[in-house]
Amino acid sequence: MATRLLPEWHPQDAVQLTWPSPDSDWAALLERIEATLEAMVVAITRYQGVVISVPDTLTRTHLTERFARLGVADERLTLVVAASDDTWARDHGPLAVERDGALTLHDYVFTGWGGKFPAARDNTLTRRLAEAGLFACPVSERGLVLEGGAIESDGEGTLLTTEACLLNPNRNPGLDRRAVEEWLHQDFGVTRVLWLANGHLEGDDTDSHVDTLARFCDPGTIAYVRCDDARDPHYPALAAMEAELRALRRADGQPYRLIPLPWPAPCHDPEDGHRLPATYANFLILNGAVLVPTYADAADARALAALAEAFPGRDIVPIDCRSVIRQHGSLHCLTMQLPSGSLAQAKN
């Protein structure tokens, strides 16, 4: 049977978001992150639907009224009450697999990036959304630990990932590289795994998720983070990662078209000064657009131009993510795309 992990550019019904509760880690920044999420919803619903899990009925009522005032069409918005621990839908959301033309959502175990943070409610969120009747396709619960931000699919059997995450003993300690590759083959139809041994961002809690470093834009194109400041502590590892990417080959033996993304000036937490993981690689592909994180930095314009080159024919939409990186993620980390055919009542 033909199986494939759908790439992000596959047609989508909606983007899934998880709204923060007032008692979450976002408490001190709640108004700021809500403003960012509102901007994302307004932008996304110009192109397709949005599904938001919310902590309670009061929040659902408030957001229904708020988005109506912001001009969001009711048919583009679905709000489901389902408590969560945090907002990172990329890592607790489902992964869409197509098998002989039929769609299944795989629900993997989420442990808060190897037990770093509470994740019990996040780990059951997909199941509860399914029980609420959200999905039109089956949801398959999987027994292994995997986050969506850890893998990139080209939709043609090749998967890009990092050794630091997928081979980390804090995820699936009984699996070596060969066993991980076999699991990826069985679950996703993967025939090739491209492993990156280098690359990291200070302030990242995910053990080097690939979606902070290098991303497929199409089956032959990879956009990646390039550090051009030799004095920056990231420089050696990212230069080594760039060399790895240059050495990679497509299944037909051809090199990838590589699009370097600029390096923003260091962002630091205003309270304790630790460095925050600002990255332009954390963009989100939509049906007709690409949402790009920005940081009020001189490099923002260059990042937008680079991604316009990578995605001809799509609108390039900047989203200010200075609030998001305060909790050590960015735009893509907040989202999970739900492909066409996944929703019981698609709102497109």
TrEMBL record:
GO terms, molecular function: agmatine deiminase activity; protein-arginine deiminase activity
GO biological process, one term: putrescine biosynthetic process
Keywords, sorted A to Z: Hydrolase
The UniProt record lists the keyword Hydrolase: yes
Keyword Cytoplasm attached: no
Top-rank lineage group of the source organism: Bacteria
PANTHER family recorded: AGMATINE DEIMINASE-RELATED (PTHR31377:SF0)
Name of this protein: Agmatine deiminase
Organism name: Halomonas shengliensis
Lineage per the UniProt record: Bacteria, Pseudomonadati, Pseudomonadota, Gammaproteobacteria, Oceanospirillales
